[in-house]
Design a protein that fits this description.
Distance between the termini: 41 Å
Helix content: 10-25%
Low-confidence stretches: none
Largest sheet: 8 strands, mixed
Shape: globular
Structural class: alpha+beta
Oligomer: single chain
Number of domains: 1
Amino acid sequence: MSSGHIDVGPILDTQIGLSTVGFVDLSSGTPIPLGSGTLVKTRTVQGILTCGHVAMPIARQTEIGVVLFPIRKGDLQQIRLPVPDLMKKAIIWYDQQDDLGRDLAFLPVADSHMSSLGAKGTIVDLDLQASRAAQPDPDGKVIDAAAGVVGEMTPPAAQRENRIVLAAEGLINVGKFVATSHGTADFDLIRLDPRPSKDFTLPSTYGGMSGGGMWRIFVREKQDGEYEVVERRLVGVSFYETALPNRHIIGHGPDSLFRHLLPEIIQHWP
């Protein structure tokens, strides 16, 4: 996929894909995608950032599967997290106001399980991201994107030898942040207008991407014509899609993350 004339595929995989997870519902015996999240940490706790309406059904499970991206061919992931441990001190805001929020959550993950996730993925430092959000934008070209697993793109689970396997498909949806506003309880909202490359057809629905990160990556061109990353910023968490034909992705923005959620996390884990 490209943004303008920039080949952004490798950049997206390393800067966004490695921090993105998909939740897998295992309760029926046939795994299905349940939502998405981002691996995060603060000075005192590690866990998964997601949205409230994804965290709520997770809370009803006994364990939840987690898949990391990008998925390599032949890579059979079997990470399962015990839900009671996730929910002991989880922060879940879900006001059931559709596109207005609040719809945001943080699920703390024990160090023993986070080490397994961190071995395959990259954990985002929320304290560092809060500091970057308070600074002026760096110079460079901008790549805006939202990431997560997409149910429509994921084929049904299939029997493979003695296992039932789900080949989860993720999407890093490149576009442009076109608007900001405020929803419930002064939580800010951002809207991504997807702008795919000409050879890529977007799914008709983004079901499954809820809870995934929304990102702004700054890049600059080197003398050899290649691009290098100047800075990556986690700017939001997606939780809602607008209607067709001009389907946008709506999420909570940096104020929600760093003025509301991060202080709450710090209060829980001083």
